[in-house]
Amino acid sequence: MQSKEKIIQCSEEIRVRFNETDPLGIVWHGHYIVYFEDGREAFGRQHGLTYLDIQNAGYVTPIVKSTCEHFLPLKYGETFRIVTTFVNSTSAKLIYKYELFNQENKLVCSGETIQVFLDSDGNLCLYNPEFFQTWKDKMEL
Predict the structure, then answer these.
(1) Based on the structure, what is the number of domains in the chain?
(2) PROSITE patterns under this entry (predicted)?
(3) Which of 16, 29, 79, 104 is most open to solvent, judged by the fewest CB atoms within 10 Å of its CB?
(4) Residue 129 in contact with residue 59, Cβ under 8 Å?
(5) Can you tell me the distance from the alpha carbon of 11 to that of 82, in angstroms, rounded to the nearest whole number?
(6) Do 16 and 99 contact (CB within 8 A), yes or no?
(7) What's the domain range around 116?
(8) Alpha-carbon gap, residue 126 to 67, rounded angstroms
């Protein structure tokens, strides 16, 4: 018997801005990490897990790992879609996967970030904070 993991994701359309490109009009590679941030922000707004929610609960979530693979370039003026997927984990972590698709729906870039929870004293949380476990229960994870 196979168990099917619930998939929670968000899709957001973004337009490449002039200041994100190099002299050839191609998006500089460092901006893809910023696009991942845009994806996390959109996910949080859509699913009720914003940075303000986390901060108001007394926690911060620094990134401890990020990966990014590039397949095709994005250029100034193009729009693209970022799909952000929450990866459920039993650990006290926020894991997100990202896929960026160009206007032709071709995969441009994929990546992942991992964030941990620190309490107001800067201590690493080994267990899910109560507010996060409540969110996970609400999302049926």
Answers:
(1) 1
(2) 4HBCOA_THIOESTERASE
(3) 104
(4) yes
(5) 6
(6) no
(7) 17-139
(8) 23
Is 43 within 8 Å of 14 (Cβ atoms)?
Answer: no
> What does the radius of gyration of the chain's CA atoms come to, in whole angstroms?
16
**Residue 6 resides in a domain:** no
Amino acid identity, residue 32? Y
Give pLDDT, residue 4: 60
Query: For the chain, where are the E strands, in sequence order?
Result: 8-15, 63-70, 79-87, 93-101, 107-116
Q: Which of 103, 97, 39, 89 minimizes the C-alpha distance to 68?
A: 97
Q: Per-residue pLDDT tens for 67-96?
A: 999 999 999 999 999 999 999 999 999 999
What CATH number corresponds to the domain at position 131?
3.10.129.10
